Amino acid sequence: MDVVVTNERMAAYLRDNHDKVVGRWTDLVVAGVRGRTSREEVRRELEDLYALVVRVLSGADEHAAGELTAALTELSSGRARDGFTPSETAVGVFSLKEAVYELVADSPDLVPEFYALSRLVDDLGLRTFEAYSATREQIITDQATAMLELSTPVVRLWEGIIAVPLVGTLDSARTQLVMEKLLDTLVATGADHAVIDITGVPTVDTEVAQHLLKTVSAARLLGADCTISGIRPQVAQTIVSLGIEFGDIATKASLADALALALRQAGMKVVPL
Amino acid sequence: MERVPILKIGQTLFVSIQIDLQDESVIRLQEDLADELAASGAHGVIIDITAVEIVDSFIGRMLTTIGSISRLFDAETVLVGMRPAVAITLTELGLSLKGVRTALNAEKGLEILNGKS
Amino acid sequence: MDELSIQSGDDVVRVRQFVRNAAADNGLSLVDQTKLVTAASELARNTLVHGGGGTARVEVVKSANGRAGVKLYFTDEGPGIPDIEQALTDGWSTGTGLGLGLSGARRLVDEFELTSKPGAGTSVTVVKWSR
Q1: The domain defined by A155-265 carries CATH number 3.30.750.24
Q2: Does the first or last residue of chain A, that is N or C, have fewer Cβ atoms within 10 Å of its Cβ?
Q3: Strand positions, DSSP E, chain B
Q4: pLDDT tens digits, residue range B29-72?
């Protein structure tokens, strides 16, 4: 939703006093920027914003409000990425009021006009905070995704046998990623056996068991046999007490046992030299 | 209406689904396969869905039905080449495709069929 | 928002392709595209077979935090669904073919809404968001 405040007198005033106001505004913003951006760059950004503010105030152009919101969002996101706090960016926006006030302080007949400008600038200041939040949220989401990717390796144990060592909780987001990586690896390596090791999964409850079953089902649709390994004693007891059935899926205590089983099924045997 | 060709090589029938099948074509394939199985006495059917991007409940049911029909003719059906995205979706849907074996590709599918006898 | 008529099997195929493109164009992952198109296929078929024909609408939407999503509307003026509860838990066994596929479609999407009255048609709305 865009901010729309119109006041033609103020728009005209801003147009007439363009250089003075933008100059003063730039001074105020540069003081707050403390050298992190050059004066020329600040002036350029403020010129663009100023022009949009005047257009919105003049009320003549219905697209101006949308463009102003967009320009402000871009400015704010850029500042956020450059390490500015949202307050610093907002204060910069608010200082437009100060720049204008210094000029109209002696003209009481311009009070309603100044108030209109003040309302507009206040809303713009709030926008900068919203834009900042949104950018940070995106960074957090991206990092979470990256972490998820890193913690889900799929390794080749032997010709035709791959393993997925799971570490950490298995929630639905993780399960989706595990299924995708496992299946893509099956296709890429032509493997026909997958070992899903859950040694590193702290708790196995009904939900986790369902996720495991789903993963095995998906792998089977690609013709792969699956073994679940890494069943610790406490986990085994929990599974039984919860009445979870793994049906015809082979389960083993250790990855080593699962590998031996897979090799046997592949018709191979390990002998000493 | 598109008709999916059925190839006979030795004792095996090969079907490769290449396009986005319309329901009528799906039913037609089922009928053609039944006819061909009866006429040829083939021991196995390989259905290649490498090029198939969507398997919904209708196609899923057809595949299961073909599996059942083949068994009546003492033939085994192997579904090969399922795409990961399709497998994940089917699992989410809870479609188990019971009665149909699966393999990564046609070559492995044949190994299954030959290993059987 | 785009509107597609569903009056034949070919139309169901067309809906699938349209939804596939919309999903791909709006940042949905391959798996999510597949899920959405599969759900669309189920719902379009229901509209055709149980609803006697109807329309599908495809809309690109934006979430509160800026994520793009694809919203689909399926409507028909058919006989409606007498027992919605049952329809939503029904028919996902492998062989029977009686299920409406609604429960399955619901599992594949992020948001699912169904309104139906016997004699007054059915309307299903689903949304799948990009991640």
Answers
A1: yes
A2: C
A3: 6-9, 12-16, 44-48, 76-80, 101-103
A4: 999 999 999 999 999 999 999 999 999 988 998 899 999 999 99
Domains identified in chain C, total number: 1
Give me the total of CB pairs closer than 8 Å, taking one residue from chain A and one from chain C: 7
Q: Domains in chain B and their CATH numbers?
A: 6-116 (3.30.750.24)
Interface of B with C in 49-88 (CB under 8 A): 53-58, 60-61, 64-65, 68, 83-86, 88
pLDDT of res. A3: 66
Per-residue pLDDT tens for A207-246?
999 999 999 999 999 999 999 999 988 888 888 888 888 8
Half-sphere exposure of B66 (CA within 13 A, CB side): 31
Phi, psi of A106 (to 5 degrees): -95, 10
Neighbouring C-alpha atoms within 13 Å toward the C-beta of A104: 23
**Cβ neighbours of B98 in C, within 8 Å:** 94
Closest CA to B108 of B65, B79, B70, B72: B79
Q: Which two tokens stand for residue A215?
A: 């993963």
Q: pTM here?
A: 0.76
CB < 8 Å from C in window 234-273 of A: none
Task: Tell me which residue in B20, B22, B94 faces C92 most closely, judged by beta carbons.
Answer: B94
Kindly determine whether residue C65 and residue A134, on different chains, have CB atoms separated by under 8 Å.
Answer: yes
B117 pLDDT exceeds 70? Answer: no
Nearest CB to B23; choose among C12, C31, C42: C12
Cβ of A134 and C31 within 8 Å? Answer: no
Decide the pairing of beta strands B44-48 and B12-16.
Answer: parallel
Q: Which CATH number fits domain A8-145: 1.10.490, 3.40.50, 1.10.3210, 3.30.420?
A: 1.10.490
Residue listed under structure tokens 């949304």: C127
The answer to whether A184 contacts chain C (CB < 8 Å) is no
Q: Which of B35-49, C20-34, C57-71 has the lowest mean pLDDT?
A: C57-71
Report chain A residues whose CB lies below 8 A from the CB of C66.
134, 138
